[in-house]
């Protein structure tokens, strides 16, 4: 029996499920991040599987229960991912609302990158109980931080998202507990000690788990990469790694990390970044940075640049009334708070550092793309007044603005996240035998990446959501 919450969700999404019937999408152009574009094609879906793909000129049998979708003059892409999400960051932004917004914008898979399992468990349970009306959920569990952890719920703006470990803890037991809770990757954070972090990487490699996150302030990026780092978020640590005085800056960090004054981890982390980020960017060493980026490429370290967050101060989406219209989809308490805070923040002048960090972030993403570093599209929603779902389309725009082709941006939001989880054989492209997560667009996203926002149909796990005519 469906709960009232499920029934409300279904009514808002206009979901149609076809447990036994096939879904046939005819006459569309198939576009993904791997195959050449394929015009005038017909796809047949059976449950959560792409059963067949063929030219629309070829005959096929139509069964009485088949659900037919005419995609003439339309464009079909794989369902999108947001690879950096925090479902529990804002308590009054509930997961049901977030799921609805993700699906309404064609995001059929999300990667939650930091939440206590106890707080995330209801969202996990809801996905398991309602597979046809929710995105696929991949999660790391809590941020794995040091004893002076940053997100411990004791300072404003830093909710409890983490656990703290050091050399006194059994790292393998910690990892095993997270895996038993359902975590399929690990998220490291900045206050981990160097020995504990290296042990975490060793254990994760043994268990075939990727470790992504913020590089601990205690370790050099090159050492982390060679020890098995799987991914990075927000381009953190690239400023120091690319600086011509990286070694002296690193030594200063080690002194500060002793934290003899016992200040909170959130304040210590902030103080170190404030002291070192922009001096490091000012001391940019191109040759050194190119060497680091080549290393990232050679070792297959995935980058989730979250340009929506990195450019927030400079681009100020929250100052745009059209952007704030997205807040109307949020719970009233969140909507009112975001509107008030956005209007106040918009009155503040753009900071010089904000402009510098925007330019730096865009330049790094362009260099990543030029050197075949793997990029994932993620946004950090709902941080920074980024409405779930809508923010992913802004991230795609920014990736293209940074220098990626539209096709490469689509790959960052489809195939590359699947590859991060070693799931490229089952999802991420439009191929027979892969999962039935599909987005049908009214316009060609290769001509303009903003066309990912002009949605005709969303299909998640074989269920059809009608957002168009």
Please tell me about this protein's structure:
The chain has 469 residues and is α/β, with parallel strands linked by helices. The chain has two domains: 1-77 and 428-469, Roll (Urease, subunit C, domain 1), CATH 2.30.40; 80-422, TIM Barrel (Alpha-Beta Barrel), CATH 3.20.20.140. The protein has 18 helices and 20 strands. It has helices spanning 4-13, 95-104, 117-129, 171-180, 194-206, 221-227, 238-241, 246-257, 265-282, 286-298, 307-310, 312-315, 321-324, 332-346, 352-370, 390-402, 406-412, 415-420; strands at residues 15-16, 22-30, 38-46, 50-55, 67-70, 75-78, 80-85, 107-112, 136-139, 143-145, 152-155, 158-160, 162-164, 186-188, 211-213, 231-233, 302-304, 438-441, 455-460, 463-466. The strands form six sheets. Strands 1, 2, 3, 4, 5, 6, 18, 19 and 20 form a nine-stranded mixed β-sheet that branches. Strands 7-8-9 form a three-stranded parallel β-sheet, covered by helices on one side. A two-stranded parallel ribbon has the order 10-13. The longest helix has 19 residues, at 352-370. It is globular, with a radius of gyration of 22 Å. Mean pLDDT is 94; it is low at 1-12.
